[in-house]
Automatic annotation (TrEMBL):
It is found in: Cell membrane. SUPFAM superfamilies: MFS general substrate transporter. One of its GO terms (cellular component) is plasma membrane. One of its GO terms (biological process) is response to antibiotic. Keywords: Antibiotic resistance, Cell membrane, Membrane, Transmembrane, Transmembrane helix, Transport. It comes from Streptomyces griseoaurantiacus M045. GO terms for molecular function: transmembrane transporter activity. Residues 32-495 form the Major facilitator superfamily (MFS) profile domain. Signal peptide: none annotated. This is Transport integral membrane protein. The chain crosses the membrane at residues 30-50, 70-87, 99-121, 127-148, 160-183, 189-208, 220-237, 249-267, 288-311, 323-345, 352-371, 377-400, 471-492. NCBIfam families: efflux_EmrB. It is a multi-pass membrane protein. PROSITE patterns: MFS, SUGAR_TRANSPORT_1.
Amino acid sequence: MSDSSPAEAIRTAPAPTSGSAVEAPDPRRWWGLVVIALAQLMVVLDATIVNIALPSAQKALGMTDGNRQWVITAYTLAFGGLLLLGGRIADLVGRKRTFIIGLVGFAVASAIGGAAGSPGMLFGARALQGVFGAVLAPSALSLMTTTFTDPRERGKAFGIYGAIAGAGAALGLLLGGVLTSYANWRWCLYVNIPIAAVAVIGALILLHDRPGHSESRLDVPGVILGCGGLVAVVYGFSEAEPRGWGDSLVLTLLFGGLALLVAFVLWQGKAKHPLLPLRILSDRNRAGSFLTMALATIGMFGLFLFMTYYLQGILGYSPVRSGLAFLPMSASIIIGSTQISARLLPRVPARALMVPGMLLAASGLLVLTQLGVDSAYATHILPAELLLGLGMGLTFMPVFSTATHGVRPQDAGVTSAMVNTSQQVGGSLGTALLNTIATSATATYISEHRTSGAGMRQVAREGIVHGYTNAIWWGVAAMLIAAVASGVLVVARPQGRGAPAGAAAH
């Protein structure tokens, strides 16, 4: 079921010699990885850096509780909805070119968001960031995929990439706290400008790319069906909180979005130049990796939203202290990805890392279901962060590496886009769905325990925490399903030279 011929060509390629036709590895490839990692870090940071700043931005711009999630969802929705398009554009016109375009556009959108004077302007800027992020992220991952083909180098490179993908989100919370406290919440957006400038200069000097496949054409019907379906489904979940699950608009968006996605899959089977070639999804290792990533980020992104408000709103932490509180999770993700997964993936099957990783992450979220209004950081939050971070570190690196291993060069961009699509759509769905569940549970709890006087404030605090813990249970379920999915679908052998990742285990 895998792309055996091109994968085999990569795995059995002889070591380059002076007379060989095989292209020698770029001697500056590790410096190129630094540039790619910097760009990826910027994209991942922006999924969470505004979380810490959200209470300040909400107050400054007059956002409602129902609308505040759009600061996050507008970014992840545009990002996830357009990634397939961005990945295919990278394949058609060249990855280095789209990489640089994405960096420049992202910086411009960040400047607009930092200068926002109304909620609508901020939401629009965040959506524009998502649009350019959808061009940038698949270009970055596909440049890595085509640069690092040696199994040992690939393990190290994807260990770094996996650590950034997981820890970058948590590091964004710390950076957001520092900038919000010592500068202004707007600097959570302005900070992207110097990062993008450095990455553009590095890309121009260090990155190289093969020419795009100009003989292919863009699948316009596929863009309309696929992107439209993704946007409709996530928007439907978001509107369920203020309108209710039985609202006609919500039902229309959800069922209409699903219908568009079904039509998208049917169209891809007969399109001459499909946006998403179905051969990519027919490989069970890739499909299992995509599904695992989506389910994992449902719980992870919801956690970031809730814990930010829990730490600041319930425990009274400052933005900086809240950011520091997430630092152990970042360290745990980095250790799991670079010191465990990167070392073991060449020797053990990918699912031997992904299944335990998801079980560890689920156990971390399980600890958080026991939160109360007076829970201590050391006894409840820290253990949960360490378990969740280690689990994510074990999972993300093999997901990235397995999903992109042995892919055809002309499909590198769109395959990379599917990995990012899984992550971003899972994140936006998780944020929208879990926020809806939490808000509804909180409202129900307060209405059932309503009192007067000083006791009402305590009831409100208890109701908020009750909503968070209710929603986190759904995150636990998502992680457990991810463990089952990776265990059943991902059958790739170890990625060492003698046992390629693309081969199914027999």
